């Protein structure tokens, strides 16, 4: 074979026909180390995204529960006015329930929870890691951990008047309140943020 043709043929074999050639090496793809680095970065970004969404979701749930408490107390007060039946609210460190007086014997009445009422049933906040602090007319009240033996704290009168109170909703690991729920003697109940009181 002519020397020039032999050299050209050798070049073709080197770059196009040989799997171990330079072009084959360039088309090999990512190395294992590169894949590990990419997966690590994706994992870190995903973790931060989950944390951000989770915190925002929890904050919304806490606000929803605080608003629910206000709405249910408004409902119980209004029902009491319409039915001429006084209602009371009993609080524990991790929840609350609504009570009414029931006749349990001859001329004997007791404040009992409204267990059959779908709206005014017991509400627990423990799953959200929340704790309640109660003040009645400015005086702190020691709350039980559970509602096993509920006693009335806030009375919702049949004339619309209520016991003045303040409930702070905060995490069970921090004393910083998320929300403050206040009840005025005239029956007005409202939710505030701590910064609203400054």
From TrEMBL:
It is found in: Cell inner membrane. InterPro entries: N_methyl_site, Pilin-like, T2SS_GspH, T2SS_protein-GspH, TypeII_GspH. It is a single-pass membrane protein. The chain crosses the membrane at residues 32-54. GO terms for cellular component: plasma membrane; type II protein secretion system complex. The keyword Transcription does not apply. Keywords: Cell inner membrane, Cell membrane, Membrane, Methylation, Transmembrane, Transmembrane helix. Belongs to the GSP H family. This is Type II secretion system protein H. It comes from Ectothiorhodospira marina.
